Amino acid sequence: MNRVLFVMTSLASAMQLGTPPALGAAAVGDAAALHARFMSCSDPMLRRRVTASLKVLEDALRVFGSDAVYASFNGGKDACVILHLLRAARYAHGTKNSCMLKPKCIYFDASDDFDEVRAFVRETCDVLNDELSVAPVGIDVGYVDGLKNLVETTTPRALAFVLGTREGDPNCGDQKPFEPSSEWMPAFMRVNPILDWSYGDVWSFLRTFDLPYCSLYDEGYTSLGSVASTRRNPALLVGSSYEPAHLLADWSLERAGRVEKPRK
Q1: Is residue 256 included in any domain, yes or no?
Q2: Is 237 a domain residue?
Q3: At what angle do helices 199-208 and 77-97 cross, to 10 degrees?
Q4: What is residue 22's predicted lDDT score, i.e. its pLDDT?
Q5: pTM here?
Q6: Which of 64, 152, 238, 247 has its CA 20 to 30 A from that of 184?
Q7: Is the distance from CB of 72 to CB of 106 less than 8 angstroms?
Q8: For the ranges 97-106, 158-167, 220-229, the one whose mean pLDDT is highest
Q9: Domains in the chain: how many in total?
């Protein structure tokens, strides 16, 4: 079956599910149980996606060590995917290597982000504190400055950053699952476990496994940035109201609600 058609079928099945559960320990579940659910997924296409992504993350944990693997979490849909994949990968890695050190989760708190996003990030970090070492980078510290400070001051050195980059993202370029940072940035390894995932794959994953996500995605937003740079996606406007993000039919319009920054 054509890959896009197969993913559309997966997404259609996921759309039959209800709204995501309220965030809490019961919603995110135990990592061992989550890994078991991933491995028993009845959707062949989604299971292949998940299995390949877990392999990338387990390789990162094996090569760099759990305590030198960081996940960048900003509350967006892609960040939710990698966060829960990392939880399952950390469990699988620990059972094979008798090592259950916590990977680290960081977030770059920004005062111009949506209040709903900031609240979702804080609550998620609180819920998962037993599985991940969670710490914010100071408020309104830029991404590059925050990474420089982290790489320079962290012991052991922060060598691997798990990102939610997907092909087609504005800054993706020709990245691979393991991609060294650009020369103008501090030295670290970018880990991209969902590089070949589509917009449909992301929503199929979150809804199939009933994982929480920011409430703004149910209000017509499909890609979240700052308040000033983000609008509801006009492709989801039906009459006078907006449909939820997972109902976007044309995945190429994922960023149609984002306002382009003025060119310098």
Answers
A1: no
A2: no
A3: 60
A4: 52
A5: 0.84
A6: 64
A7: yes
A8: 220-229
A9: 1
